[in-house]
Amino acid sequence: MNLLKFIAKRVLIFIPQLFAVLLVTFLLIRLIPGSPAEAMAGSFATDEVVAAIEEKMGLDKSLTTQFVMYVEDLFHGDMGTSWYTSNPVTKDIAQRFPATLELITYSLLLAVIIGVFFGLATSFRPNSIGARLGKGYSLLAGAMPEFWIALLLIFAFYVTWDIAPAPLGRISLSISPPKTITGMYTIDALLTGNMRAFKSAASQLVLPVVTLGLCYSGPIMKMTRTIMSDVVNANYVWYARACGLPTKKVNRYVIRNGLTPVVTFIGVQYGYLFGAATLIEQIFGWGGIGQYAVSAVTNKDYAAIQGFMLVAALFCMIIYLVVDIIYYIIDPRSRA
Amino acid sequence: MASDNGNIVLEVKNLVKEFKAPGSKAVVHAINDVSFELHRGETLGLIGESGSGKTTVGRCILRLIEPTSGSIMYKDMDLMKLSGKELRKLRPDMQMVFQDPSNALNPKMNVENTLLDTLNIKAKLSGEKLDTDAIIKKVLDQVAMEEDYRLRYPAEMSGGYQQRVCIARAICADPTLVVLDEPTSALDLPVCAGILDLLRRLQEELGIAYIYISHDLTTIKYICHRVAVMYLGEFVEVGSIDQVFNTPMHPYSNALMSSVMVPDPTKKAEVVTLEGEIPSPINLPQGCFFAARCPKATEECFKNHPQMVDMGGGHKVRCHRVTSE
Known about the structure:
- The structure holds two protein chains of two kinds.
- By secondary structure, chain A is an all-alpha fold.
- Chain A has a domain at about 95-290: MetI-like (MetI-like fold, Orthogonal Bundle), CATH 1.10.3720.
- Chain A is built from 14 helices and no strands.
- The longest helix of chain A is centred in the middle third of the chain and has 38 residues, at about 195-230.
- Chain A starts with a helix and ends in a 6-residue tail after the last helix.
- Chain B is an alpha/beta fold.
- Chain B is about 35% helix and about 20% strand.
- Chain B has helices at about 55-60, 85-90, 100-105, 110-125, 130-140, 160-170, 190-205, 215-225, 240-245, 250-260, 300-305, 320-325; strands at about 10-20, 25-40, 45, 70-75, 75-80, 95, 175-180, 210-215, 225-230, 235-240, 310, 315.
- In chain B, a hairpin with a 2-residue loop joins strand 9 and strand 10 (about 235-240).
- The longest helix of chain B is centred in the middle third of the chain and has 18 residues, at about 190-205.
- The two termini of chain B are about 35 Å apart.
- The interface between A and B is medium-sized, with 18 and 31 residues.
């Protein structure tokens, strides 16, 4: 009951936050020099032509009117139309968002498994083989940028050994994607029982997920190790041992106290990956939302940029909400 | 209170602790041959500068850190020879209070759960049934905390109250020995005085023996019956408060005592300043550990390591110059 109240309160705060994001994005993109109409009309267009296009785009109206119109449309579920894809932005995003979500969720899962495992190993048993591997690994993982790892993996597994599929999108070109339910191919394929599509989608995911997983497990591991080593040596842990509490219980205290900041960190990384996956999307021809946003920015595609920002902000807010809910569950202090 | 005959709670003999320095073959000599005994209801102060091994002694006594060699007789059992299981049974009997109370309490447990943890493990290990609710009520009263603090979390209390919880946690198991590792150094002066009074009162009521670790001479003087001065992992002087504070024999104790501020402007302080730093515990000096900084050092001091000698009345000192005079 209390939890529901807590969630409701947080969701209410979303409204002003989203509005602020909206307003700032709206104003900021209009600060970029050069009118999108000029870009669209081409370099030989006369002023009249540009003015005509501007009028068609609604850019001749005052900023306030434009903003009010935009917000009004939003309330009707309309994010405007992309000037470049000519599609409604809602449709573009609905298509591309699940692609990115699928990619970064699997990547984060992999990163968390590797990072937390090595992090715990290095702090609980600093002299074990796992700990030594982890230390070496964290050095390597932080040293190479993700696009480089991606290229290396493609070179090794696709070009040289030919065990991975070509880095060309989310599913083999010869296989039709599964019926859209969530938009995430692996899940949709499983839901519809389309094993052929599932196999193809999963194999396309392997290289980009491994790339991001390797890159992002490094920081998670370092974070886990730092926090855990502190907690392992905290005086209350010494006390618990001094008082004769069973090792299992002592370890539970350590993990419960140590993992809470790690949960926050993982949440932040999730939000960060949403934009940071763009490079990887580019390399693997993923067609995700990051790529969409980058082309929207280079083309001054106002509606598309605004749409992306809104979705990105909402995504981060939901993640932080989930992090807070997890906190609520594992940390009795936040319930008071 | 401290009687010389019998009633010995703890007798430590030739305690040695060596750590391997990480990443090299060097050995850190944290404790070198420490021996002492502690009576029921007595407070022994361990004093020394940072890195002198005070905290390590405290933790070795409870075998939280495994000593390298030596014997620790607790009542009539040698803690060093006990198995893990037997030792665990004794654990609630020997309690510990730490320096930084905010770090010594599990931030995710309120006062009640903190105390219950200790009480439940004691009940489980000893097999006796405890009326935990009544005990919690009693100890909170003993440490002068109101009932409504029961459900508070550490972050919702001041440092003084956090330390009271730590003390309540230590005494709720009805221990015979409590190791107090700088229990007041993280606290404000008035709070510190309150905690010291509390510790003294509890000792009188419950007859607990304390090992009080500190580098603060004034609190040592206030709360301890006997005091041991530590330097580079060994005792250089042991005696009653009166002996060590008023007639210090070891040149190091002498320098320490002269650094105490006296709240009397008419008294002119004769401060003995020491040159240099405490030597590295990795390469121990061959002779007296203190020789390089000692104003009285002679050739012998650099050659032979002095032994602890009883100068009468339990006042022991480790110094060639004092014992040869």
